[in-house]
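Internal tracking record. Fields below are filled automatically when a chain is submitted to the structure queue. Please do not edit lines marked as system-generated. If the sequence contains nonstandard residues, flag them in the REMARKS field before resubmitting.
Queue: standard
Priority: normal
Entity type: single polypeptide chain
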Amino acid sequence: MKPARIVLADDHPLIREAIRSLLTGTSEFTLVGEAADGKECLARVRELRPEIVLVDIAMPKMSGEHVTADLRRLFPDLKIIALSGYTDRQFVRAMVKAGANAYVVKSASGRELIHALRAVAGGNSYLSPEITSAVMSDWDTSPSAGRGSPEALGKREREVLQLVAEGHRTANIAAKMGITAATVESHRRNIMRKLKLHSVADLTRFALRHGMVRL
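SYSTEM-GENERATED OUTPUT FOLLOWS
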């Protein structure tokens, strides 16, 4: 199997050098491009079309949050891992909402980064252990966390909910499930009505609380 192609965006040369060295030692991943700011990241992804992009959340010219949102819109199937020195839940929520599949703190070990890469390459999400408990606690106590139960949903609705929570867009969900985009939107409306939820962020919180999405 061919190694997954990665673009790395971080404005610190030492971080890029360390990650470059880490990836050189594995046959599962190959670093095909680097960027030192947000705009350069977008250009490199357009040019190289990688499977995974590592995005620093605090970059010059364009923030990681805005880069992630643009990448998710332009390349729905792209796997995005946020790299950050911050463990504050507001940064985690912002990146997840923008479309990141994973959030890894820069204090993590190289082994953890490889674990996150394997997770997203396999279609799963990942949060560094340092932030998981704080984020889950915040989501568990949110007023909009949902009062319904997964059992209230039909099989297809649960599938849609899981895919939405994993960051997939409507067109991508439709393609994966072999249904129309209109049907996906209909399922989403029904899910929100049944669970008394009001946004994609609410759906993501609900799915995390009930173990429907693997971190």
